[in-house]
Backbone:
């Protein structure tokens, strides 16, 4: 094993990751703490206080979406793990297939369905019922998050459930455990790693989305992603955009830290991706 | 319990597929509406294929996906071998932590941070246009690299070091021993890494949105299409993508099952 070979193998990637992963994060920091002329300033950081509501809204919506996703995905993953082993592979493919469609297309399709003149309201009208305004409501945005990221929750939970040893369940039953206790004392703790990684995989894209809120929120709901997008693309205020991104990054780091602490305390831990 | 399970599955599948099926259905609408069906027609498909914009976006997407997958696969495989061979634990952990950053960060942060890098450097060397094809390519390689490395590294960890040493004891040079003994064992990891990189690049919208201007890929094109009034041509495009993805998945699954059957027959 020659040392020079190691240098030759590692150098390109180390240089690449340094320039395009580490340096950009520092540049975000630089932009957040300077003004448009490049002078040191706290203006952008102070301006963040106007965006408190957007942060809270993002946090709230994505938390609700994550919980709803979990409530749908958990029984589904369980039911899936109980189907014959032969069909499970094909079913998993069916679950992942919508994810292969671009998020833009999926969201846009829902926008048309939920529209004032969309198919749901057409059906309501034909039944002589009053049309409902879906777009622009918090419910529609949360609905979009749940739809788009549901497979991310199903996949890791299903993976741990499929690996679970069924004889443990039988043993628990033989020893007199009832159905609910089997779930609470055995299945739930064993499926925790999958749940934790599912929560991260749904929460992170939900909290940072801007397309879902743009389309299903009808432009009325500004999440943190929307404010970043507006500063970077429409207003060209890179400094404020950087400050907002910085806060988003910190928010996610803190959430992950809390999640990992929680995972450790359940005794299982680890993220299964 | 069994019926409950069945109901859950049916409801979830209906939920996942209803918007996609409606989209396919209305792409054949003869009217301009995407909610009232007036008659069967292929005119939106015709319109799609006669628009040079869409075809160019498709070509751009493929060029970008192939180039970024190729470069990130080569670079990532070299890096995985390098990380595997290095003895220093500190170096290993640091490199792997940095590798995790683009996977943990939300896409919007990765996109914004790269955009700011390109703007910063662009201003420094006095450009007026900061973003182009090359910045987009760099961004795609950057977010693809972790997936290649994390596909190849586990395969390397599974290899038996004594085989590599045995080959050298029997007179092979280290590089020959590597290519004849280690390489065949990590090829599946390299291939799945490359496929993952290719599909991630095809599908990416958020990072491309911040790091490209002028060079329009399919997701960027779809984004600009969805900014205007709803027309079934977008549905026609989506249907084509859907059918292509479905066909590819089916083919790869059948292929996989066949090889599994063959292996089962041999052993």
Residues:
């Amino acid at each position: 094993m020659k040392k020079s070979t190691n240098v030759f193998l590692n150098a390109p990637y180390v240089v690449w990751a340094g320039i395009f992963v580490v340096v950009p994060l520092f540049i975000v920091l630089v932009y957040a703490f300077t003004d448009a002329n490049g002078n040191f300033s706290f203006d952008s950081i102070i301006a963040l206080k106007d965006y408190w509501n957007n942060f809270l809204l993002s946090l709230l919506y994505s938390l609700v979406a994550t919980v709803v996703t979990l409530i749908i995905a958990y029984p589904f993953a369980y039911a899936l793990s109980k189907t014959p082993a032969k069909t499970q592979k094909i079913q998993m493919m069916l679950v992942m297939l919508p994810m292969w469609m671009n998020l833009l297309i999926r969201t846009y399709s829902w926008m048309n369905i939920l529209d004032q003149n969309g198919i749901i309201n057409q059906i309501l009208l034909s039944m002589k019922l009053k049309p409902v305004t879906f777009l622009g409501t918090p419910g529609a945005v949360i609905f979009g998050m749940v739809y788009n990221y549901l497979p991310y929750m199903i996949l890791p939970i299903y993976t741990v459930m499929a690996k679970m040893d069924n004889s443990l369940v039988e043993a628990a039953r033989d020893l007199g455990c009832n159905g609910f206790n089997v779930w609470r004392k055995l299945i739930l703790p064993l499926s925790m790693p999958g749940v934790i990684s599912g929560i991260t995989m749904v929460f992170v894209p939900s909290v940072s989305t801007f397309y879902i809120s743009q389309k299903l929120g009808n432009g009325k709901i500004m999440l943190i992603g929307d404010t970043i997008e507006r500063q970077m693309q429409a207003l060209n205020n890179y400094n404020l955009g950087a400050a907002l991104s910085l806060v988003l990054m910190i928010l996610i780091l803190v959430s992950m830290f809390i999640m990992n602490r929680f995972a450790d305390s359940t005794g299982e831990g680890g993220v299964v991706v | 319990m069994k019926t409950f399970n069945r109901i859950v599955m049916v409801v979830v599948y209906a939920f996942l597929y209803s918007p996609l099926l409606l989209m396919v259905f209305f792409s054949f609408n003869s009217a301009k509406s995407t909610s009232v069906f007036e008659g069967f027609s292929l005119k939106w498909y015709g319109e799609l294929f006669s628009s040079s914009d869409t075809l160019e976006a498709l070509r751009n997407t493929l060029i970008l996906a192939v180039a970024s997958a190729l470069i990130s696969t080569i670079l990532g495989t070299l890096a995985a071998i390098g990380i595997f061979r290095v003895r220093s634990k500190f170096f290993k952990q640091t490199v792997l932590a940095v590798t995790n950053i683009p996977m943990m960060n939300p896409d919007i942060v990765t996109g914004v941070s790269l955009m700011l890098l390109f703007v910063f450097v662009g201003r420094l060397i006095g450009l007026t246009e900061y973003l182009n094809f090359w910045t987009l390519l760099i961004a795609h390689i950057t977010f693809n690299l972790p997936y290649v490395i994390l596909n190849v590294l586990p395969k390397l960890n599974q290899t038996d070091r004594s085989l590599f040493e045995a080959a050298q004891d029997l007179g092979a040079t280290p590089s020959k021993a590597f290519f004849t003994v280690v390489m065949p064992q990590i090829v599946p990891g390299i291939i799945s890494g490359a496929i993952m990189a290719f599909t991630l690049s095809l599908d990416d919208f958020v990072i491309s949105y911040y790091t490209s201007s002028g060079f329009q890929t399919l997701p960027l094109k779809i984004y600009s299409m969805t900014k205007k009034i709803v027309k079934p041509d977008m549905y026609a495009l989506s249907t084509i993508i859907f059918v292509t993805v479905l066909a590819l998945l089916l083919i790869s699954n059948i292929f996989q099952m066949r090889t599994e059957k063959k292996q089962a027959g041999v052993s």
